[in-house]
Fold this sequence. Notes:
By secondary structure, chain A is α+β, with helices and mostly antiparallel strands. Chain A is built from seven helices and six strands; from the N terminus they run αβαββαβββαααα.
Amino acid sequence: MGKADLARRKFRRERGNRKVHSSQLKNRSAHFSERFDSLVHLGLYSQLPGAPCHMLSFTINQEVTTFDGDETTPLLWVLRDHLDMTGTKYGCGIGLCGACTVHINGVAQRSCVVPMAAVANAAITTIEGLAAADDKLHPVQQAWLEHDVPQCGFCQPGQIMATVDFLKRFPNPSDDDIDNNITNICRCGTYARIRKAIHRAAELSATGDRK
Amino acid sequence: MRGLNRREFLVAGASVSGGLFLGLPIIGAASDGDDHMIGFFVQIEPDGRVIIGSNQPEIGQGTRTALPMMVAEELDADWSMVSVRSMPLGIVKIEDGYTWKYGPQGAGGSDGVTSNWEYMRQVGATARGQLVKAAAARLGVAETDCDTRPGFVVCDRLGKEIAYGDLVADAAMLELPEESPPLKDIKDHRIVGSRVKTVDAMGIVTGKVRFGIDTVQPNMRYAVIARAPVLNATVKSFDDTEARKVAGVLDVFTIDGPAMGEPYEILASGVAVVATSTWAAMKGRAALTIEWNESPSANDSSDKFWADNIEMLKGEGQRVVDDGDFDAAMAKAARVLVRQYEVPFVSHAPLEPQNCYAYVQENSCHIIAPTQSPSGASRAANAVTGLPRENIHVEMTRVGGGFGRRLTNDYVAEATMISRRTGWPIKLQWSRDDDIRNDFYRPAGTHELQAGLDASNKVIAWTQRLASASKYYRRPNMPDEELVGAELYNDDFPRRIVDNMRLEYFHNTIGLPRGSWRAPAHTANAFVIQSFIDEIAHETGQDPLQVRLDLYGAERELEYGNHGATTFNPGRLSRLLKFVAGKIDYGKSLPAGRGIGLASHFTFGGYAAHAIEVSVEDGELRIERVVAAIDCGLAVHPNGVEAQLEGGTIDGLSTALGLEITVSNGRIQQSNFHNYPLARIAAIPARFEAHILPYNDKPTGVGEIGLPSAAPALTNAIFAATGIRIRKLPIGQQLRV
């Protein structure tokens, strides 16, 4: 058996509603987060001490998932390498480009700078979990298709996840609202279409119009 | 590699499921197993589905949509029934080397559409012809009694129609014609020129499409490399004690870099860390202690580079164009203008960092890579392993941005080295820092432009003198006098327009690697030429639009010998300029601190112009409005053409606003998006228009055409708004005076 298989066996994904309650864990992650922030800022998070292997539980796209590996691992890499959920992309590793944007408890976060310790008991949504099916797309995805936004497409899952959260806070956004809140990078320069698609998604969300 | 003639590339046969396929025969190889199916351009199934092979890398430029559209057009397919399948690299050994199995494959130079325009349509037309022939035989009528509508052969005389799917079994048995059937008239096009949606858009917005970075293969291990922090430094020794303590780290070893100055396979010497996950590999790398040898590039610096350029320009360089009598014209000029401009090194920074899957076994090598040049990937793997190239299988993934970076397959060579050493299937992952610090940067240069004007302010003499470090970086067998070829395109404007013209080149050196960056030398040359025209206009009290229109003149075809075209028609630039000027209401009165700038450029056969309006208040620059226009002859996929024009424009603006790579003590100073700040949406105005001006029935490329004139339109607008002339890119903080 290969080492990658061994790593994957550390993961147990279970259907159901098993919840792990651990106030200790929560406190630990809060403390951890604080330290993490300062280290991330310096690009030194790899120097964090390896944590003992607590069992962490959380949900990804409503599925209960547990993790007992290195708690300093950013959520991004757990999604990508361990769970093979590759819609969430790696672009910069320091929270600047937004290609790795997911929702943690409904709020858009850059998963490359969120250590596993910080997601204990959290509800995580990734691009794969945004729509129930291809014919039941989220209005933001639908607007992205209507305006044919993607070029290379690499940043677009992150752009979409950021926009979904943004529209919750700004259901009828102005261009200034977009400028002040959407900071994801698109290297291909699809910004003109992203802007139009955000406005369109706001319309679709307001009317509940889904194809 | 030689091209294929039609007889060689078209063969027909029956697919496994009883359909018709049409594609390429296997040249010089008896059997090709399963690969046989993948190579075929078009396959029609009995249920009516049409599967079209895409042989080109898809880097966001849209060939995966545009090329199948051409096949589907001539096939008269129902586009809703079309799906696109990726083809791997196809090369076949012949007597004196290798030739293409599926036609040339590669993304660069904006020629995906132009080089496949005839070829792909012929495939579609031939398939359609076979279906018509099969229908005529079945109905007992002449082929001329039959026509097609999307997905059906129709016979009006009998009032009958037969679905393509019902004809494929018969069609597969028919001999192919000697000649391709005639192609459609442009006015009869239903798919080419229509606004179909980008192929794969659904997979992208749902996160299902796999890029290279998303590759997962059985028993795959993950690798990263700690590369030399100083250009051309090499590993002296390393201590991996702490790295090996990181859970998941499997192996640590040295990667030998290329010898200084020699042609390269990889960029840098380093230490590889192989682990069970990307994070473990990264963590292991961070725990390494590496001692590096002193590098011959340890004193390289941007400051020295720029200073050397200025010194060089005081002397005499290599004259590559010397039309008319430049010296005499300058001597009799009523007025002479001289200006110097600086265009910086920039990084490609595709959003998907470099990565590659490689699995080297005893007699084979499997590569899965996001690459613009799959044959380059094959050569890289061959150089590392010594395996015959026919034993190296290269699969292309969707590519998270190319911009020229992935024309070089150094990361493929690295992954192959690591797999060869360990025997494991390896996915090599670069970090963003790795990517920005280890690039083949767009060459930087100092350009001196001089113009001699007669008494009526007409330009009678022109020279561009460039000191740069050429893109031709450590190429094998490259004599110094040919380095200029990558930096100055001899036949660009104003060649054959200004009679007395000289181009002069000075070759500077620096240890920093250089390569092709989207629209390579056009980005620099459009900036300096279009800025200089603006300066001539303002200095002589003329209107910048009129000066350009006077110079370009009427429509006419001028001889052109550089990449992408055989002629250059400056009148097409005039038409675009007038159009964008009209759209933006050029000449309207503007409040203080506002200005409009114009620029236009001919790039690789395509024409573009920009009109940009800016405001500058307290040194704060705001782009208020952008009007961009492209003349690409015929727009095969208008939606995609507009996307490339928008993206090219934004790339040009983003780069001009704030991007620069600098070197100090042999170290690249930038590392991530905090100090290499790609523009975000706030920099790009809501008032942003991209227009296509159709010209004729011949498509040009579009991927690079929209970029070069964006930056000078912006800086010309800044001058109009403030009187500040930007002669050094990026704009950065220069307006905060």
